[in-house]
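Late entry, pyridoxal-5'-phosphate complex.
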Amino acid sequence: MVVMIANNFVGSPVDQVVFDGNSVFIKRDDLLDPAFSGNKARKLYYLLENDDSHAKVISYGSPQSNFLYSLSELAKLKQWKCDFYVDHVPRFLRDNPAGNYLRARNNGANIISIHKEKDTLSIEEYINKFVLPEEECALFIPEGGSSPLAEPGIKKLAEEITQWAEIEKMDDVKVMLPSGTGTTALYLQKHLDFEVLTCACVGANEYLEDQFQALSKGAFQHPTILSMQKKHHFGKVYTEFYDIWLSLKKQTGIEFELLYDPLGWLTLRGYMQVQKNNVEQSNPPPILYIHQGGVLGNDTMLARYNRMKRMGNK
Ligand SMILES: *Cc1c(COP(=O)(O)O)cnc(C)c1O
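Prediction complete; structure with ligand written out below:
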């Protein structure tokens, strides 16, 4: 049974772990429900609870994305059709369906490649021009669920954190989570009195700042963006990503996700190092890292890491 749709939904637990000698609290949003978890479940929470007026949902993005999979779960629960537009499906995935792509397909999601038709248009432009005019009754959700529809579910996450800190008698906490579109970090900051720390996984810091601005319209405070010296490209495989993912698993027993979490943890490790060396701050506030789920996507990422290791491409 899906925990998220139960009326007595109580939220996710918090674990305390030690990583590289640092004590860190982990908000286990990955444990919300096996099928419907992480920040995508938070973003879709409002629709799950409130929307029964649609028969079809339309979105777009990567055929391997966590969002595609979560949307397909929502559509299955709601008995909605789900049309998900992608540029193209990579050949290795088409030949060996796995991870989010396979699960979304099994849930009945209709994954539509428009590489040939869209010409010079972006996927969103193509959908606006050719798809939505024919689908006036469908619900359209932007890539990654980056929409005001996401706010109520993320507000709920903020309330759980506030409650937890109260019970633990913490008057300050630093909340860390890696960003894609920045939707989760932004709405979390809006509804939390604590500072939210994040890092830009998808584009440059300027891209993330633009995303924040588009959703906030400058009406509330944005999260703090932390950066690393080395730039990483989204979706690429890096030895240091795999290494920190594996050492997190060994030291904490928790499996994190492989696209966003490695950069999140590398950045956080740097931040904690600076805090430790800061003599003026003898007692830095505790850190709460948000586990945003997505581990089902690790199937296809691990296959890529294995290929990289076989090729000795270090
Ligand atoms: C989607 C996702 C993110 C990025 O969330 P945004 O709200 O787009 O910033 C981060 N981590 C995981 C595991 C995700 O699935």
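The CA atoms of residues 153 and 220 lie 18 Å apart. Will revisit in the morning.
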